[in-house]
Amino acid sequence: MSEYVVELRNITKRFPGVIALKNMSLAIKPGEIHGLVGENGAGKSTLIKVLTGVHLADEGEILAGGQKVVFHNPVDARSAGIACVYQELNIVKLLSITDNIFMGRSVKKRSGLLDYEAMHKQAHDAMLSLGHDIDPAQECGKLGMGLQQMVEIGKAVSLDARLIIMDEPTSSLGEKEVEQLFKSIRALKEKGVAVLFVSHKLEELFEICDRVTVMRDGEHIITRDIGELDNDKLIEAMVGRTLDNLYPKECTSRGDVYLEVRNLNSAGLLHDISFSAYGGEILGVAGLVGSGRTETFRAIFGADPYDSGEVLVKGKKVVIKSPTDAIRHKIAFLTEDRKNQGLILSQSVKTNLILSNIGEFCSGPFLNDKKIEELGEKNVKALRIKTPSIDEIAGQLSGGNQQKVVIGKWMNSDAEVFIFDEPTRGIDVGAKIEVYHVMNNLVKEGKCVIMISSELPEILGMSDRVLVMRSGRMMAEIEKNSGYFNQEGIMKAAWGGTIPCLVEK
Amino acid sequence: MSRRKINLKDFMMKLGPLMALFFLCAILTAVTSGRFLTYINLMNIFKQTSVNCLIASGMLVVLITAGIDLSVGSNCVLAACVVGVLVQNFGVKNPLVLIIAALVTGLLAGVANGLLLTRLNLPHPFISTLGMKNITLGLALLITSATPVGFFNTGIDPVLYLGSATIAGFPISFIVVVILFSGFHIFLNKTALGRQIYCVGGNPEAARLSGIRSKNVLTFVYGLSGFMCGIAAIVLIGRVSTANATAGTTFDTDAIAACIIGGASFNGGKGTIWGTLIGALIMGTIRNGLNLLGAQNDIQYIVIGAVIVLAVFIDVSRGRMEAKARRLAAM
Fold this sequence. Notes:
The complex is a heterodimer.
Chain A: E1 6-15, E2 18-28, E3 33-37, H1 44-51, E4 59-64, E5 67-69, H2 74-79, E6 82-85, H3 97-101, H4 116-129, H5 145-158, E7 163-167, H6 175-190, E8 194-198, H7 202-208, E9 211-216, E10 219-225, H8 231-239, E11 257-266, E12 270-278, E13 282-287, H9 293-301, E14 308-313, E15 316-318, H10 323-328, E16 331-334, H11 338-342, H12 349-354, E17 362-363, E18 366-367, H13 369-382, H14 399-411, E19 417-421, H15 429-444, E20 448-452, H16 456-462, E21 465-470, E22 473-479, H17 487-495
Parallel strand pairs in A: 3-8, 3-9, 6-7, 7-8, 13-20, 13-21, 16-19, 19-20
Antiparallel strand pairs in A: 1-2, 1-4, 4-5, 9-10, 11-12, 11-14, 14-15, 17-18, 21-22
Chain B: H1 2-31, H2 39-64, H3 72-90, H4 95-119, H5 125-143, E1 149-150, H6 157-164, E2 166-167, E3 170-171, H7 172-190, H8 192-202, H9 204-209, H10 214-240, E4 242-243, H11 251-261, H12 273-292, H13 297-330
Antiparallel strand pairs in B: 1-4, 2-3
């Protein structure tokens, strides 16, 4: 028996255009609670997928219990004793705890009927080992989120997993439920089960983990006993990246306030959000995934309802109940998920380009084909969209070119406020720089650009001012000339540290 | 260069159902020893296809939005029965009033479908239109006391004209179909609303976030489908000279089949009005040919069923082959 329950050695995983994991190594001891942290996009998800057999590594090897193994599919990983509890639960809410725990491998009597007696007993035992004495015949949908997650963990336990991966297990739990979870994790540790605990919340790592591994850009940075680490050391290990010349920032002068938001609230999502955005500046919005950045701007854009708060455009109070209203007030929103929310993939490039302002391209009820074609050709040239023709189906273009079509659509809508949500996600470096040039040109024309991004270098490289959000709250507003306009400053605000320039309320 | 290639491919795709229609006609000409390929018989096919064409045109627009309208058959007979009751029980003879009554009935039923879907947020148009299908059928039975209303010698010939008259043997109803279909072609391809319908079908969320009022577009689409049922009702009463509440049982599936054979997809965003016309003609031709060969209703249903499955299978295989060709080209 080896010292480690699972060991990854020099794993490399490439996707078209990116290397997601570079020479990544990770070793987990039996009965250890091992933390895994890194910025968004550091490669944690890919690592989990390699460990659970969803992706096959291009290079490197995996050892389970000292034996070399190859996981071609999730079943291979499961039979090697690796189970994963994902962020989104895989619970069938209408079925009982027992049914969920025994899904796909039900115990049958000799008559061929289900042996519920045996299954209930085993399910009860599994839940009991996690510290929960509950009736396994209960319907899962009637349990709280914490207990539902516990059922998932119970499933892993009843499969005799030796390593349970928990991907952001506390993200949807309340304080009390987190306590329950930690109790169960400690119970697992007692049984000698190892846990790989992936979390964005540093304080949790300090509370529960024995050792912590930090990843950055797909690489292993450090693995240390938790006692050797503190908040600052962890953040430094996570960031520690130098800015290069990817960001063609041009200086502009701040104009008048264009968009002002006062005390925006949405139950359970957004709390008292207030800020202003000015013409002629790029306002960066930083924060971890799930901190409420996208939700804030979807509410402002009228895509989702909110409970209370005021939105002012150029000092005048406006009511925005739908995206149509927002567009009338000259607000544009480039969604983070362009395939599902930005483009009509089955339609042509030119149709997508006129989508948000179709009335402008009509003579009476009829589309003015000549005008549309002229505009399409103009957009394709100005944004350097690589497409065989403007009649090409948008779904056939590459990611970067699709993004440019979305940008073109909003530029054609006469907007004055441009909200870019993760504008460079999944596009290559060349296309990224072109997107930055577009932003530069917009602010040079005196327009207001708001850029939500998870990439800190991008936020620092392009913004004139940065808002930082955490847990649905505006945590900090950092001016470019402030001493906190750096990765550490933003990370501290985003991860729950305190910096003195908090937003005045 | 590449642009021309794309257009040629599009052209071939549109041509597929048309070639199938010609092929079908050639076979029927061969096996019916001349009975199929006569002027009178061909005109018969046009006459018999008109009602399905009109209903299918509305259905196509609904299918483009990734929806479905199961109520078209019942809506159509309700509109016909409203005309019947107005003539029989209220003595209305004014053709304009009767025609408007049919159109308004269809339109209201359609708008109701749209409002149920978009304002009550019912999960799928299957539900709202299934509900309306039963409601309008029930209303049609109720107002006619489940007894067909005959229009012979009731003095409303101008109303019956649309469904019964011919010019040199060519049915007026089919001329109306061609004119309306040209209108649909322009509407779907050349107007802002037409483009928006395709966009809502392709991705309703992206359309909404681009400022298109998706709910209003959908309500319009179901209203249009209902309105077409009203027109179909006028043609129907002209053709059979009765208003019968139970006449529309196969109208829904016939209309869906015509659209699907013509290249529309349940996933939305796809389909053309000319494809639908050819789809309806293929169905009409098969029925007619089998009639000439002496086949009964039972056989006709079996053959139509097989044709629907075959048409969609060909369509899906073609899509898969194209995707493969694209992958190969990208390598």
